[in-house]
Amino acid sequence: MNEQAVSINNLNKIYDKKIILKNFSLKINWGQVATIFGPNGSGKSTLIRILGNITDYDQGDIYIQNRDFKVNNNNIRKTIGVVTHQTFLYDHLSVKENLKYYCQVFGISNYFANVSTAIEKFNLNKYRDTHVRKLSRGTQQRVALARATLHHPRILLLDEPDSGLDNDSLKILMDIIDQHKSSGGLALIATHNLEFGISVSDSLLILSDGQIAFSTNSNSTNKELFNYEYQKITKEKL
C-alpha cells in the first residue's frame, strides 16, 4: 500500500521551558515500519506519547488516515496500539485479568478467545494466572505488547519494545511487526538497538534536539555508515 497513513507537519512540544520537538515533520504510508533512534532527550518517546494520545502538543498538525488528530481524537485512538516505558498494566491483577480488562476497554465482546490468542502468541501460558507485580521486566513487556495488539490496531506505536526481552521474546516481537506490516499496518518504533531497528524497518531516522538529524531507507542502508552517523550525533549530545 502507498496510501499515506500518518502525516505530521511542523510539530512543536515544549516542556518545562525546554524544546522537546521543534518543527518536526514526518509522513508514513500504510505497510511501512519506521524506526527512530537518537540520544536520550531527543524527543523519541515524546513523539510516541503524542501520537498515542498520552501527551498533548503545543503547535503543528497531525493527520491520521486523513483525519485531523485533534478533531477525531477518540475515533483515531481506537485504531492505535501503544507500548511505552509505562506498561499500563495493573500490578494486582494477573496476566489474564489484565488482558480481559483491556478487552472490555477496547469493546471486544469475545474476550475469552482474544485473551487466549494473545497469551499463546506472546508465549505467556505459564504466567496467565500470575500477578503482574511478580513478573520480570521482560515478561511485563510481553504482556504490554499483548495488551497493545488485543484490538488488532492498524497503527502500532512502540517505544523501546525490545527493552528487557530475551532472544526468544525478541524473535516473537519481530515476527509480530513483520506480520503487522504484511497485513498493511503501520508501525513507528523508538529504540536504541540499532541491529533490531534496522532489521525490522523500511525507513530509519535519527533525532537530535527534537528534529530529524539524519534519515535513510533501510533497504539501501550501509549499517556501518548508519552506525557512524548515529554515534556521531549521539556523541555530540554528551
Care to describe what's here?
The chain folds into two domains: 4-79 and 155-236, P-loop containing nucleotide triphosphate hydrolases (Rossmann fold); 90-152. 36% of the residues lie in helices and 27% in strands. The chain is built from eight helices and ten strands. Strands 6-7-8-3-9-10 form a six-stranded mixed β-sheet, sandwiched between helices. The radius of gyration is 18 Å and the shape is globular.
What is the radius of gyration?
A: 18 Å
Query: Which fold name is given in CATH as the topology of the largest domain?
Result: Rossmann fold
H and E order: EEEHEEHEHHHEHEHEEH
Please identify the structural class as seen in this structure. Answer: alpha/beta
Biggest sheet details: 6 strands, mixed
Number of strands: 10
Q: So, CATH architecture of the largest domain?
A: 3-Layer(aba) Sandwich
For the record, what is the CATH homologous superfamily label of the largest domain? P-loop containing nucleotide triphosphate hydrolases
Arithmetic mean of pLDDT: 92
Low-confidence stretches: none
- Order of adjacent strands in the largest pleated sheet: 6-7-8-3-9-10
Number of domains: 2
Tell me the span between the first and last alpha carbons. Answer: 40 Å
Please give the share of residues in helix. Answer: 25-40%
CATH top level label of the largest domain: Alpha Beta
Number of helices: 8
